[in-house]
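User: Second chain of the day. Same drill as before.
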Amino acid sequence: MDELDLKAAVEAILFASGEPVSAERLALILDTDEDAIFDVGRELSEEYETRRRGIRLVRLGKALQLHSAPEYALEITRALEQRRPPKLSQASLEVLAIVAYFQPVTRAYIEQMRGLDSSYTVGVLAERGLIEPCGHLEAVGRPTLYRTTDLFLRTMGVSDLSELPELPAVAGSDAVRQLQEKVEALKAAEEAKAAMEQEAAETAETAEAGEGPA
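Assistant: Same format as last time:
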């Protein structure tokens, strides 16, 4: 299979899947190696962006996925009549940060870090697909362990957990304070993203109004 066919095959598989597909699986199916898959993914990603296509290709750890271009979120929302998911609450951001930096963790560990019951918040994050069960701790009661998902990576705009801001190796109250700073950073990033989307929506509405009859 030449490079052009390989690129087309990867694109077709990712489009049909709608979910992340590991480079290992793609390489096995297409009879090539993972490096070649990542090279093709990088080329496709650059093509989509430079040609202002309506789709993007992202790398999530050792997997690739196609998704819509974020600058067309407003048009997609209008076309599909979907509402933007509600913003994460402070409690959700705190729990999400704990899972992200200390995973895999149990609900008891989260509650120990926060000093609050977190069962509802853990359930909300799992329902929204930002965290997921990943086994059980070998202890009395075998409590469920949780980790972040690929959707979490996409939401945070990173390809791998290693790209998250570093959390200093501290303990006690200092750890709580440092974690809170990271939570505030995540919250600020989400609010900035929401503000940009709102600005884009207002700009589009203004443009549409200007195109009306004189």
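Residues 54 and 174 are 44 Å apart (CA to CA).

User: Great, on to the next one.
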